[in-house]
């Protein structure tokens, strides 16, 4: 399979016997790993002209599903502030994350490009960054919308979760850090809100520790011991260089295995710009702290154009909430976390619709008509060209931008989405293609393959909490599995030549679109390769410059910049 996926024909040679039989995915798996995108455009002063550069506030939430806010139909979760913003702006009902996983979707969101173009879509099974001391990340050659707006004189800040890398080759080079990608100010979590970060919430590293570190360590250890014994008995001579390499491999694997016992200390910390402020991170009033930082940024930049990206840790596991919200919702810890995030606004892993269709709300009083419900397909990649144009920045001409300007759709000057086709990736593999014909209300979606679900946890999404994208973890479909999303949003009724007269014609168009898209991809370094993903001790950040101590709490001592 070529980098970035292959055409439909590639699947034909690897067809699965059960290609036409698709078990319905479990509801929980279908909801997870979405990215909620909420945009608010504020005008400077009392101006209402489009020529004035708007201030931009972007609110993101991890794993919030399309059916969770009240404005999208939920009758039991209380989200009055989100609902109010939807009433005062435009609600997107076909809004899509560019990937069902955090790291690639955030890369697409920041750059307006499919993550496979920047090497931020994995060819291995691990599709996200797990360690702060990994060497992969958003390449310095990529251009974020923050960088474009900064060049236009905007003050820019990212508060909350980053998850796009930290350093490249040395501790503190910060080549992937938010401040290296157009943000003037950063306060938040460099990686992600792992379950390991919260005591008693479990670990995501159990399987990886066993299969990637402990078992190889045991095998290499036995081999090394056998060779040493044979050398001592004079049975044969092993070159010292080989023994040294085996010993080094044992030490490195032992270090990786030990890391899993210290994940919370070494991986779960808060930063302000390049300095660690709390290690390990505490969840006490964390949402309030993030909100406080956001409000302070808004106040100190009120007299000049600004961009604020407030990237919530909720509702990704580990779930957390402050005591004012704990036990108050009707949906346990998940509901408590969601309702606390909604309070702040008043201040994972597949391409089924439940995994990628997410809430999207845009509000700009006086410009975007209030109370709209827009059913046209849109993507989180669309933020890039939209805010660039509003800020007066030309788009880069040396690269393909996959996002489309949303303003014609939002202002009513166009009734059609800028996306006729959208391509859905599972890691670096082309998984599905979406087509919204210009002269039709239908939205066709064809799957090249689908993940296998295993309730027993033997070989699928339940075992790892993330769906794998190749090998025996997937079912390939020939012909592709076809749905009309406009009529069947739950994807329960695959179409056939008997139920859809244009079945073969539709697949032909989708095949041609997939082929044309694949031709636009160029090879790039894989930022999520095993070599880039592994924990590297020399990249580990600690409170102490000498790395003798990785514990500190400067949150009460250091309130941050006041300017």
As a whole number of angstroms, the C-alpha radius of gyration is 24 Å
Major sheet: 11 strands, mixed
Which geometry do the CA atoms define? globular
Q: Give the rounded overall mean pLDDT.
A: 80
* CATH superfamily label of the domain at 27-194 and 268-419: Alkaline Phosphatase, subunit A
CATH-level-2 architecture of the domain at 27-194 and 268-419: 3-Layer(aba) Sandwich
Total beta-strand segments = 17
- What is the level 1 CATH name of the domain at 27-194 and 268-419? Alpha Beta
Number of helices: 16
Strand order of the largest sheet: 11-3-10-1-2-9-5-6-7-8-17
Broad structural category: alpha/beta
Distance between the termini: 52 Å
Segments where pLDDT lies below 50 for 5+ residues?
Answer: 1-37, 42-50, 316-321, 339-346, 456-460
The proportion of residues in beta strands is: 15-25%
Could you say what the CATH topology of the domain at 27-194 and 268-419 is called?
Alkaline Phosphatase, subunit A
Percent range of helical residues: 25-40%
């Amino acid at each position: 399979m070529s980098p970035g996926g292959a055409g439909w024909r590639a699947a034909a040679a690897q067809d699965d016997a059960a290609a036409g039989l698709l078990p319905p995915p479990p509801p929980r798996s279908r909801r997870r790993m979405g990215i909620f995108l909420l945009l608010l455009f504020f005008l400077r002063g009392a101006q209402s002209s489009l020529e004035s550069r708007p201030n931009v506030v972007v609110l993101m939430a991890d794993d919030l599903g399309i059916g969770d806010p009240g404005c999208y139909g939920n009758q039991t979760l209380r989200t009055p502030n989100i609902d109010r913003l939807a009433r005062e702006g435009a609600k997107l009902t076909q809004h899509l994350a560019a990937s069902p996983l955090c790291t690639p979707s955030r890369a697409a969101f920041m750059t307006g490009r499919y993550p496979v173009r920047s090497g931020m879509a994995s060819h291995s099974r691990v599709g996200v960054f797990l360690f702060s001391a990994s060497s992969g990340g958003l390449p310095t050659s990529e251009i974020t919308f923050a960088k474009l707006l900064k060049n236009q004189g905007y003050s820019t800040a990212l508060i909350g979760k980053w998850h796009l890398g930290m350093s490249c080759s040395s501790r503190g080079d910060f080549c992937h850090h938010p401040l290296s990608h157009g943000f003037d100010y950063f306060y938040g979590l460099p990686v992600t809100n792992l379950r390991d970060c919260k005591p008693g919430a479990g670990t995501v590293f159990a399987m990886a520790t066993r299969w990637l570190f402990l078992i190889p360590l045991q095998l290499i250890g036995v081999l090394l011991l056998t060779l040493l014994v044979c050398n001592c008995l004079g049975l044969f001579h092993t070159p010292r260089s080989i023994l040294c390499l085996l010993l080094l491999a044992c030490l490195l694997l032992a270090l990786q295995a030990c890391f899993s016992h210290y994940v919370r200390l070494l991986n779960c910390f808060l930063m302000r710009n390049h300095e660690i402020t709390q290690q390990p991170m505490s969840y006490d009033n964390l949402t309030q702290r993030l909100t406080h930082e956001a409000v302070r940024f808004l106040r100190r930049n009120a007299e000049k154009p600004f961009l604020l990206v407030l990237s919530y840790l909720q509702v990704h596991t580990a779930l957390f909430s402050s005591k004012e919200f704990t036990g108050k919702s009707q949906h346990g810890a998940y509901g408590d976390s969601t309702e606390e995030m909604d309070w702040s606004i008043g201040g994972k892993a597949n391409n089924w619709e439940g995994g990628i269709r997410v809430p999207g709300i845009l509000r700009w009083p006086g410009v975007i008509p209030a109370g709209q419900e827009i059913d046209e397909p849109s993507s989180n990649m669309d933020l890039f060209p939209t805010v660039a144009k509003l800020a007066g920045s030309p788009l880069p001409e040396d690269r393909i931008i996959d996002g489309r300007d949303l303003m014609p759709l939002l202002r009513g000057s166009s009734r059609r989405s800028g996306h006729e086709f959208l391509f859905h990736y599972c890691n670096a593999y082309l998984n599905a293609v979406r087509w919204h014909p210009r002269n039709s209300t239908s939205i066709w979606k064809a799957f090249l393959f689908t993940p296998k679900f295993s309730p027993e946890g033997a070989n699928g999404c339940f075992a790892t909490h993330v769906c794998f994208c190749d090998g025996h973890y997937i079912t390939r479909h020939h012909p592709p599995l076809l749905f009309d999303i406009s009529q069947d949003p739950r994807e329960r009724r695959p179409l056939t030549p008997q139920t859809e007269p244009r079945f073969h014609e539709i697949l032909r168009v989708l095949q041609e679109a997939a082929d044309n898209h694949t031709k636009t991809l160029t090879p790039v370094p894989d930022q999520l390769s095993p070599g880039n993903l592994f924990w590297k001790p020399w990249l580990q950040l600690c409170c102490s410059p000498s790395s003798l101590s990785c514990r500190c709490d400067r949150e009460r001592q250091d309130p941050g910049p006041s300017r």
